[in-house]
């Protein structure tokens, strides 16, 4: 296993080629489309400097109204199954749902999709409540620089996240972390990230690029360059051939997709599924994947996969299923 500083002397194209060769050897030739399912738009912490929810905490007078209705959540899971998308994880702000409620949601999603789900629902020591309805626990590490983490996420101590991940492993769950690029980290911080993955036995890394939100300190910042993103991802792939890597990009950065796959990504995320379905943007995602020589798990274009307007599992989901389908069908390929 090489340290990234050894790799740094290689031409970036050689680095990406090496990462791609490893991916083809160690992983499936299929790239998954991934979707995070949000449980709420409120977070009791509400002070992560880059996060949209940090701009909403003082605006939401009744946090209960920011919670999504459970039939709506389950309907979204059913649509993911129909369209063959993976559920990246369940995500929600602090104090949106209690752990027993999250467990019940996960159980119902497993009934619908026949798949266990990942959780990204905050720091908790109550992991014993969960069983095989979940695959693993995601720690919101957010940045590869621990000093930056403590500055940008003051209410989510890195020590507590690490303790949760270690407990997760002791309970035989898988571990994942999220890393946002463009928060002020540098390429030198890869040393720390590589060691963190080793220390906490991380099975999955989910990378995002900064999406500057209004009213945050990053409002006037820009997302990191595609080649910087590719260098980070390919270095992690080379150092950890078997790890699962999911990469998030945004609708205005779809050109990142191809190079991120060649750099080692197993899946692509961070898209507004129902708004992009059937549009030129959705087709662009599929084209980016196809031109890497990979197959696609999931669809942005096959309207037949949308299915009937009634749920196959619970009639309480019907009005939400109908809404998702109608939203997808009204899109125009322009």
Structural features, described:
The protein has an 8-stranded parallel barrel, surrounded by 5 helices. The radius of gyration is 19 Å and the shape is globular. It has helices at residues 4-7, 12-26, 70-82, 99-113, 146-152, 158-170, 190-199, 226-239, 256-262, 273-276, 280-290, 318-329, and strands at residues 30-38, 86-91, 117-120, 134-142, 174-181, 204-209, 244-248, 267-269, 295-297. By secondary structure, the protein is of the alpha/beta class. Helices cover 37% and strands 16% of the residues. α9 links the parallel β7 and β8.
* Rg (CA only): 19 Å
Distance between the termini: 47 Å
Order of helices and strands: HHEHEHEEHHEHEHEHEHHEH
**Mean of residue pLDDT?**
94
Strand-residue proportion: 15-25%
The number of distinct β-strands equals 9
**Helix fraction by DSSP (H/I, runs of at least 4):** 25-40%
Strand adjacency order, main sheet? 1-2-3-4-5-6-7-8
Summarize the structure.
By secondary structure, the chain is an alpha/beta fold.
What's the arrangement of secondary structure elements?
Elements: H1 4-7, H2 12-26, E1 30-38, H3 70-82, E2 86-91, H4 99-113, E3 117-120, E4 134-142, H5 146-152, H6 158-170, E5 174-181, H7 190-199, E6 204-209, H8 226-239, E7 244-248, H9 256-262, E8 267-269, H10 273-276, H11 280-290, E9 295-297, H12 318-329
Parallel strand pairs: 1-2, 1-8, 1-9, 2-3, 3-4, 4-5, 5-6, 6-7, 7-8
Helix pairs in contact: 2-8, 3-4, 3-12, 8-9
């Amino acid at each position: 296993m090489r340290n990234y500083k050894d790799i740094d002397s290689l031409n970036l194209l050689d680095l990406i080629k090496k990462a791609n060769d490893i991916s083809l050897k160690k992983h499936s030739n299929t790239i998954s489309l991934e979707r995070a399912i949000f449980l709420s738009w409120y977070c009791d912490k509400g002070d992560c400097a880059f996060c949209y929810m940090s701009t909403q905490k003082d605006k939401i007078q009744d946090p209960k109204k920011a919670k999504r209705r459970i039939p709506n959540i389950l309907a979204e899971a059913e649509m993911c199954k129909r369209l063959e998308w993976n559920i990246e994880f369940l995500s929600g702000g602090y104090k949106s749902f209690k752990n027993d409620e999250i467990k019940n949601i996960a159980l119902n999603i497993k009934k619908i999709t026949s798949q266990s789900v990942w959780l990204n629902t905050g720091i908790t020591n109550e992991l014993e409540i969960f069983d095989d309805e979940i695959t693993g626990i995601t720690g919101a590490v957010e940045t590869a620089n621990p000093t930056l983490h403590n500055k940008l996420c003051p209410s989510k101590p890195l020590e507590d996240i690490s303790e949760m991940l270690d407990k997760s492993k002791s309970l035989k769950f898988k571990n994942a972390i999220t890393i946002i690029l463009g928060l002020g980290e540098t390429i030198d911080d890869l040393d720390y990230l590589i060691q963190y993955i080793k220390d906490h036995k991380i099975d999955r890394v989910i990378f995002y690029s900064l999406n500057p939100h209004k009213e945050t300190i990053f409002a006037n910042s820009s997302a990191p360059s595609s080649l910087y993103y590719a260098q980070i991802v390919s270095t992690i792939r080379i150092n950890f051939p078997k790890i699962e890597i999911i990469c998030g990009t945004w609708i205005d950065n779809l050109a990142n997709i191809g190079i991120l796959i060649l750099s080692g990504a197993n899946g692509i995320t961070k898209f507004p599924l129902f708004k992009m379905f059937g549009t030129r943007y959705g087709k662009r995602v599929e084209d980016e994947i196809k031109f890497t020589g990979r197959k696609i798990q999931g669809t942005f274009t096959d309207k037949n996969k949308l299915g009937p307007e009634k749920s196959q599992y619970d009639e309480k989901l019907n009005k939400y299923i109908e809404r998702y389908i109608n939203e997808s069908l009204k899109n125009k390929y322009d």
